[in-house]
Structures are given as C-alpha cells and as structure tokens.
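Justification of resources, computational component.

The compute hours requested in this renewal are based largely on the per-chain cost of generating structure records like the one below. Each record pairs the submitted sequence with a full structure-token output. That output is archived, and it is also reused by downstream analysis tasks.
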Amino acid sequence: MRPLSAAFTLLMALATAAPAQDDDYQARLDRGRNAAERKEWDVAAQQFGLALRVRPDSVEAGDLFRQAIREVEIYNTRFEPLRTRTAEHHGGQGGLEGVALGLAWLAAKQQPEGYWVNEFRHDYRCDDVGTTAFALLAFLADGNSDATGPYREQVARGVAWLIARQQAGGSFGGGSNYSEGLAALAIVEAFAMGGSEQSFLSAQKSLNHIVASRCPEGGWDYQEPPAISGHGDVSVSGMMFQPLKQAQLAYLDFSYDTLDEIVSWVDRITPESGIVPYRPGQNSSFHDPSMVAIGSLFRLYAGHTPESHASLARGIGIVSAAREDMRGNIYFLYYGTMVSFLVGGETWTAWNEVLVENLLAKQVAEGPDKGRFWDEADRWTSPRYVDPVTYQSMAILSLECCYRYVPRKRVPGGD
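The structure output for this chain reads:
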C-alpha cells in the first residue's frame, strides 16, 4: 500500500487518474455503497478507504469514508451503556469513580488555548505536545469526543490546538518522537470517534510522518534518523507504533507492512531470555521490565499468542511476575496493564487487583487537589521525567483499560 503523503493536504485538487484507475475507483465506491445499504459498515469503510487510495483527493469518497467510520464504532465500549457493562464484565467497576474524579482534575488544568502544561522541562524531550496528547487520550477513552460527552469542549480545544501546530510534513513540532507518537494517536482516535474532516486530514499526515521517520534498521529514535542510532529504541517505538495500530483499525492509509516489520525487529533484538532491550544489545535495569511489556504489546497487536510465540510467552511471564513493581513505576504500570488486559484470564485478574488498589491509594480524596493521582517517589516522577499531567493521564488510562481497547470477542454480548 502506498502512503498518501501530501495529497491529503490538497483535498480540493483535481484528480488525474488513468482510465483503469477510474474503473477501480468506481468499483470500490459501488461496493462500499452496496455494503452501506446493507449496514455492513466494516466492509463499507474498507471499500471507501480503498477508493481513496486510488483517488486520494476525492471529496465524495472522503465524505463516504468518514460516515462509514462513524457507523463502525470501533470504540463502542467507551460509550454507555456498554461502557459500564464492559467495565463490570472485566472487573473494572472499582475504578470508575476514580476515573471520573481524575478527569475532573485534569479538565481544570487545561489552558484556555486548549493545551496542558508540562511542568518538568529538564531537557528537549519535555514539551506540551506530548502532555496535551496524553490528557486528550484520557478523555477520549472515556467516551468524550469533540462532539459528544461531558468534556467535548475540552477535547475540541485540545484537538484544535494540536492540529494548529501540525507542520506540512505531518510533525506536530514535539520535542521528541514520544510526543509525535502520542499526538498522532490522539488525532487518530479523535477521527475514529468523530470523523471530522480536519482530524481525518491531520491523522493521515501524521501517519505519513511516522512511517517516513523510522530508523533504517527497524524502530524509531528520539529524533528523526540519523540522530542517535540506526535501530532506534524500544521505548520510543512503543509510542510511535500505537497510532499505526489504531489507524489500521480505522482503515486509514499507510504501509501496513510497517506493523509486521516492527514486530520482526523486536524479535531480532530480543535474546533467548525474553528480556527486551532498551536498545539492541543494551539492557538497563532502569527500563526493565517496561521494555518487556512494550515488546509483548507489539506481538499481541500483531495477532500472536503465547502458544504461537515463545518470546511472547516468556515476556508475559516476566511482566506478570513483576506486577508488584507497578507500585513505583507508572511507565511499567501503563504498558503492563495493556498487555495483561489483552492476555486476559488469570493474568488480568491478578494484575487488575493490584492495579486498582495501588492507583486509588494514590488519588487525593479531598481538598483543592481532589481527584489527583500522584506518587512523588515513583521511578519516573522523582527524576522529573513524568510531569503531573502525564502521570494523571497514564493513571486514568490504566483504569480505563478494560473498556478502552476491547477486542470484539471480549465485548459483553459480542461475537
């Protein structure tokens, strides 16, 4: 599949397609319309998306595609009544009040212009782009879009602020690719939940930028290559991989082979022990076991199972055995929660018990900071790597995990 590149910034330009392409475009458009009439929205979205790949400047195909995506509802577990039912089904009901209080605290910290401030600016990696994106993701995961939900105004302002910063090449001007990946993920989810033309165009540009900024040997680095290494590192790659996966679910266009290539890269650099390195050949006790969790998430997203993938099985075992470490490691908590939920069963039950108890114990119950999550002694807050808004967002997203990204077979009453 070819990336759409700058064509999406010229939505009103005239198409100059060859007759064979015109025939292909019309056939896909017709198949999409037929599927829409049958209310087969997954098929309709796919066909309209394929039509856009033939003629990326088609207003007609773009409008039909966005309409189909709204009907697909890939995040339907974020909305009531399915949200509460899904949370209860997966043992997350104990965190719902904590999420509500946490979002209220987060909303109060938003600046009038729409962004959230990163208070810890100790190096180039700290900026307001990543902090704003993380906050938006917390609101989006709870069913708030720029058009629906009690925090729709906050989401609309935050999304508009990110889009206004976006450069022609797709970058959001973040201090590092951590921020770029987070901003892209927020915009992709905003599009999938609302389908606006602005978020559609912005999401596509950001995907083009992500694919183009990979390191030659595999993953992503803090800056576009060749800033540090030819491989990149697993930590940054975790943030850049996630918007690609969600974009695939929303039928957005990019080279889908990138997802498999990243999993192959992680497999190549993972030793027999299953300990995923921070960089190839570079293990760090500071980053363990967070890198193992990220590597496991890559493999789960690629469709692997513990039965079919030995390194994944070892990784899940390492993450599960280290679950008490989440108490002082918000980064591990965030990724380990996503992995444990996708694995499900006893792995999730044991993890979730510690997760909810640990986070609710760190939430302020009364006073002006009511709803705030914080741990001054956390591995990532004490050296000022993770600022208060980011910590808050990661805590909320972890409590939202049981209804944030739910495979269809895990939806109550689903297939």
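Confidence is low (pLDDT under 50) at residues 1-20. DSSP finds 17 helices and no strands in the chain.
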